[in-house]
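[step 3/7] fold_predict: job queued, chain A
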Amino acid sequence: MKKTTTKIRIRYGETDQMGFVYHGNYAQFFEIGRLDWITQIGVSYKEMESQGVLLPVIYLETNYLKSAYYDDELTIETFLLEKPTVRIKFGYNIYNEKSELLTKGVTHLVFINKENNKPIRCPKYILDKL
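[step 4/7] structure written:
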């Protein structure tokens, strides 16, 4: 299934007093990669929400292997772990400019009907893009 890569540059405010990227920022990096993945398959997240489909994160796993630092350019690799059903499961690898693997992650999100907050199956228009 489709794999995307997204580049980001670490801002000073994303680091801690020791100069490392603060661990809590990696969830945001995964989100950046995930939203870019959705856009690259031709789906608008904003349009999906306006059609009444929400996609909250229900599981987050992060494995920190090496540190990232201020002004590093990182590459976020985002990919599906399996075909979506009611859930969509993403994997992530984050690399530095030397192509060293810094962080691995997994998120699970569930498709929710905005009106009643009940789980729904993955919309057909997303499955058609895959």
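[step 5/7] annotate
The two ends are 7 Å apart (CA to CA).
Helices lie at 25-40, 45-50, 124-129.
exit 0
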